[in-house]
C-alpha cells in the first residue's frame, strides 16, 4: 500500500513540485498517474522510491514509514518495488537471461532460485524463446518486456512503470499496457506514470490526474482529457 498524506516537496532551487498531495493506492490496484510535463509526476515517483524525501507531510510505502526510515532499511523497502523505465536500462553485454540473473543476484538469490524464477517470468512476458539473445538482437518492444521481466523477477508487491511506452509505437504500447494489466490480474499492484491520454482511455482503470503539484481529479474508470506533451 502507498499512502501520501498532505505531501509537499520543495527542491533546493526553490521549485515547489508538490503542494499538499494526498493519495492512497491499495494492494492489488491498477492506477494511472497522469499529467503534463512539470506537473509533479516524477517527484511522486522519486518520493515513493526513496530517492528524495518530503518537505512536509507523511509517506508510507508497503509498510515502511519513509519519514523516519533508516538508510539501511531503504534497500529492503525498494525490494518491494519493481521499477520499469522508459529507456529500458538493460545491460547490453548481458543476455536476456543474464540481465534477469543480475537483478536476482543483487538481492542475494541462490542459483536454485534463479533457475526456478527466471523461466517463469520470461514465459509470463512471452520471451521464453529469447533468453539467450542480447538486447541489441531484439526489438524495442521486446526490450521493454525484458525490463518488465526484470522488474518482476524478485517478486515485488508493486510495479511502478515510469512512461513505459514512451519509446514505442502505438501497437507495441498497447501490448505493453495489456501485459501490465495481466500482471495486475495476477495480484501485483501496478502504478503507471504517463501522459499518453489515448492509451489511458483504452483501459477502464483508476486515473489520478496531477497538475501544478496538485491532484485535480481521481476517478476509477476515469477519462483523461489532459494535454499530451
Q: Describe it for me?
A:
The protein is globular. With 229 residues, it is α/β, with parallel strands linked by helices. Helix 4 packs across helix 5 (140-152). The protein is 31% helix and 26% strand. The chain is built from seven helices and ten strands. The strands form two sheets. The chain has a six-stranded mixed β-sheet, with helices on both faces. A four-stranded antiparallel β-sheet has the order 2-1-4-5, covered by helices on one side.
State the end-to-end CA separation.
Answer: 30 Å
* Uncertain regions spanning at least 5 consecutive residues: none
Classify the secondary structure makeup into a structural class.
Answer: alpha/beta
Quick check: average pLDDT?
Answer: 93
Q: How many helical elements?
A: 7
Order of helices and strands: EEEHEEHEHHHEHEHEE
Integer-rounded radius of gyration:
18 Å
Shape: globular
Major sheet details: 6 strands, mixed
Percent helix, as a range, is 25-40%
Strand order of the largest sheet: 6-7-8-3-9-10
Strand portion:
25-35%
Number of strands: 10
List its traits.
229 residues, alpha/beta, 7 helices
Topology:
Layout: E1 2-10, E2 16-25, E3 30-34, H1 41-48, E4 56-61, E5 64-65, H2 74-78, E6 81-84, H3 96-105, H4 111-124, H5 140-152, E7 158-162, H6 170-185, E8 189-194, H7 197-200, E9 206-211, E10 214-220
Parallel strand pairs: 3-8, 3-9, 6-7, 7-8
Antiparallel strand pairs: 1-2, 1-4, 4-5, 9-10
Helix pairs in contact: 3-5, 4-5, 5-6
Amino acid at each position: 500500500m502507498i499512502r501520501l498524506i498532505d505531501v509537499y516537496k520543495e527542491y533546493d532551487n526553490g521549485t515547489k513540485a508538490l503542494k499538499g498531495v494526498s493519495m492512497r493506492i491499495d494492494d492489488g490496484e491498477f492506477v494511472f498517474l497522469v499529467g503534463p510535463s512539470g506537473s509533479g509526476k516524477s517527484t511522486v515517483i522519486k518520493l515513493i522510491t526513496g530517492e528524495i524525501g518530503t518537505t512536509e507531510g507523511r509517506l508510507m510505502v508497503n509498510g515502511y514509514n519513509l519519514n523516519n526510515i533508516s538508510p539501511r532499511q531503504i534497500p529492503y523497502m525498494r525490494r518491494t518495488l519493481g521499477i520499469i523505465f522508459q529507456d529500458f536500462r538493460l545491460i547490453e553485454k548481458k543476455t536476456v537471461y543474464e540481465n534477469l540473473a543480475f537483478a536476482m543476484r543483487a538481492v542475494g538469490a541462490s542459483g536454485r532460485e534463479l533457475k526456478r524464477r527466471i523461466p517463469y517470468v520470461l514465459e509470463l512476458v512471452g520471451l521464453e524463446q529469447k533468453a539467450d539473445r542480447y538486447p541489441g538482437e531484439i526489438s524495442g518492444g521486446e526490450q521493454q518486456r525484458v525490463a518488465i521481466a526484470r522488474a518482476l523477477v524478485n517478486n515485488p508487491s508493486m510495479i511502478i512503470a515510469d512512461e513505459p511506452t514512451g519509446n514505442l509505437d502505438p501497437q507495441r504500447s498497447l501490448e505493453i499496457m495489456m501485459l501490465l494489466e495481466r500482471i495486475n490480474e495476477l495480484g501485483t499492484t501496478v502504478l503507471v506514470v504517463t501522459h499518453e491520454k489515448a492509451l489511458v482511455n483504452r483501459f477502464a482503470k483508476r486515473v489520478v490526474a496531477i497538475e501544478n503539484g496538485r491532484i485535480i481529479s481521481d476517478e476509477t474508470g476515469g477519462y483523461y482529457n489532459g494535454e499530451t506533451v
